[in-house]
Amino acid sequence: MTFDAIDIKIMNALQRDAGQSLETLGADVGLSRNACWRRVKSLEESGAITSRVALVDAKAVGLGLMVFMQVRTHSHDPDWQMQFKRATCTIPGILSVYRMTGDLDYLIRARVPDMDGYDTLYQQLISQVPIADVSASFVMEEIKDSTALPL
């Protein structure tokens, strides 16, 4: 996909504030409301914009502890992978799951209320899929956490 300067401006503006009106967005990027709407729809249809969401403050909703779980497995067969994918996609506190290269097989990013919440999440995961080893690191300070891509 190729994007022109206006497409880039639209995507940057929507990454900052997806709730702004089309009038405001159009004025910011130099388009009329209708032309701006057509561009946004085209970016959505092409898959460049996958969704428009509200970001919720985790601490405000009682999910103040972020944890990164490093997962190692003895099995790499397709059935285990499907079982792991199904388990991680259904546990609400799990936000991101990545299959990794190197010594680590998977990295999970999760949000929980506290250590008891982490233990509950951990127990849910290991009850659904056999895992060789899980270690966890807890975030003490969030220095930068952004969803905006550098366009």
Automatic annotation (TrEMBL):
Ranges where the HTH asnC-type domain occurs: 3-64
GO molecular function, a single term: sequence-specific DNA binding
Domain of life: Bacteria
Annotated InterPro entries: AsnC-type_HTH_dom, Dimeric_a/b-barrel, Tscrpt_reg_AsnC-like, Tscrpt_reg_AsnC/Lrp_C, WH-like_DNA-bd_sf, WH_DNA-bd_sf
SMART domains attached to this UniProt entry: HTH_ASNC
Keywords noted in UniProt: DNA-binding, Transcription, Transcription regulation
GO CC list: cytosol
UniProt record, GO biological process: response to amino acid
Family annotation (Pfam families): AsnC_trans_reg (PF01037), HTH_AsnC-type (PF13404)
PROSITE patterns listed in its UniProt record: HTH_ASNC_2
Gene3D superfamilies attached to this UniProt entry: 3.30.70.920, Winged helix-like DNA-binding domain superfamily/Winged helix DNA-binding domain
UniProt protein name: Transcriptional regulator
Organism for this UniProt entry: Tateyamaria omphalii
Biological classification of the source: Bacteria, Pseudomonadati, Pseudomonadota, Alphaproteobacteria, Rhodobacterales
